[in-house]
Specification:
The chain has 331 residues and is α+β, with helices and mostly antiparallel strands. The strands form five sheets. A five-stranded antiparallel β-sheet has the order 5-6-12-8-9, with no helix packed on it. Strand 8 and strand 9 form a beta hairpin. Helix 1 packs across helix 4. The longest helix has 25 residues. It is globular and about 80 Å long. The chain starts with a helix and ends in a 20-residue tail after the last strand. The mean pLDDT is 92.
Length: 331
């Protein structure tokens, strides 16, 4: 409540720089279902009051299932079993506020007060970061979507404002696990990878743009299964979707580009979605009947598939129809 939100934001900022990909968890969230299963480490930040008994129970259940609990040393209330991380969390209101200098101030807080104690505390939990890089040059954000993991690599050089882009070549990125095929989605290229201490290491160029999106999978897509609903006719809509298959089965919501072509082969639409999302495209009543074509290209490696969809003429309707009685106002 109040400005506590900004204190949580400060810790969120520091954890993000270390590749932790944090969420902000409210007490109320824990009252129904406890701490989310995806959470493996929970950091209590500058807590000055005891938790609600329901929250305390949720924290005990969390540690009982193997979750790790950390608490900053400026907390006067410390949950049972929590490891203490030394430091005083300062938010932007305690620094320069909402001004351009705040970014550099937060950088200094991270470098001087929080980098080392947080690195040590996170390492002690035994929970590996999904993706990390040199925090003095940038940071990584990892997102899981089914069997594919996506990692955004973002340039943000030390002692610079985030709007000051510093081109960086061969930025090392360390990824949790081994056996990944790593695709640079901007270049549509597979990155050379090495294995170090049970992790996958690649090097990323941030030269023309300050960010790049990587896709990690245990093998390249092998097929695009494109489907369309039968019974399409003019005046209605095309309804279609696709699934992207890999060696182990469905790869989940892989990014896909759909292209819709009319009967004459002319492009009518270019659409983007995740595999599995149902797509619709309106068919004008006075357009051309016949075989329309839908093409799908998955955007991890560029694999394509296409499908001809028969489109029937519109249902016959008279050009003029009675509309019933009309009420004329003020007459």
């Amino acid at each position: 409540s109040g400005r506590s939100y900004y204190t949580y934001h400060a810790m969120y900022y520091h954890l993000t720089r270390l590749g932790a990909c944090p969420d902000v968890l409210s007490e109320e969230t824990t009252w129904n279902g406890g701490v989310p299963e995806r959470c493996r480490v929970l950091v209590v930040v500058a807590q000055q009051q005891p938790f609600d008994p329901r929250t305390e129970k949720a924290l005990k259940d969390f540690t009982a299932r193997g979750g790790k609990l950390l608490v900053t040393s400026d907390s006067t209330f410390r949950p049972e079993g929590a490891a203490v991380v030394e430091g005083e969390v300062k938010n932007i209101w305690q620094l320069s506020g909402f001004h351009a200098d705040a970014h550099r101030d937060m950088w200094k807080q991270f470098a001087d007060a929080w980098r080392r104690p947080l690195e040590e505390a996170l390492a002690a939990t035994g929970v590996p970061a999904a993706a990390t890089t040199d925090p003095e040059q940038g940071y990584c954000l990892a997102m899981d979507a089914g069997p594919v993991r996506y990692v955004a690599v973002i340039a943000d050089a030390k002692d610079r404002h985030y709007r000051e882009f510093v081109p960086t070549e061969q930025l090392p990125v360390s990824l949790e696990g081994t056996g990944w095929t790593v695709r640079d989605l901007a270049k549509q290229a597979t990155l050379p990878a090495a294995e170090e201490d049970g992790r996958t290491v690649v090097k990323v160029d941030l030269v023309n743009e300050p960010a790049v999106l990587l896709a990690l999978c245990k093998g390249a897509p092998q097929a695009v299964a494109l489907r369309a609903r039968t019974g399409a006719r003019l005046g209605g809509e095309l309804v279609f979707d696709c699934a992207v298959q890999g060696q182990g089965g469905d790869l989940g919501p892989v990014p896909v580009r759909y292209t819709v072509f009319g009967p004459g082969g002319d492009e009518r639409a270019s659409l983007y979605a995740g595999a599995g999302d149902e797509m619709t495209w309106p068919l004008p009543a006075l357009d051309a009947e016949g075989p329309w074509r839908v093409a799908a290209q998955e955007l991890l490696t560029g694999l394509e598939a296409s499908l001809d969809v028969p489109v029937a003429p519109a249902e016959g309707r008279p050009l003029v129809e009675p509309i019933g009685e009309v009420h004329v106002v003020n007459e």
